[in-house]
Design brief:
Blueprint lengths: L1 E6 L15 E5 L6 E2 L6 E2 L8 E4 L2 H10 L3 E5 L17
Parallel strand pairs: 1-6
Antiparallel strand pairs: 1-2, 2-5, 3-4
Length: 92
Amino acid sequence: MAARIFQRPKNAMQSGRANTDRWILEFEPAEAKKPDPLTGWAGSGDTRQQVQLFFPDAVAATAYAVKYGIAARIEQTPPRRLKIQAYADNFR
């Protein structure tokens, strides 16, 4: 049972950073999704893909994974790069 621990990045379409401070433990898929012959929808028998666990920091998420024997890897959030420019630069 493998999982990844990550922080949700800021939405590029909005200026707010809501829900970006929480860390998420998400299980990796155990089997590939396949199309349903009747409806054509993609699905699998793996129900762990539906589970997301939220933690206040990476340490708490790692401690949970160690306690329950989950092989988890931590994905660090890339640093925010601000592009500082003046409004007048749009017209050059």
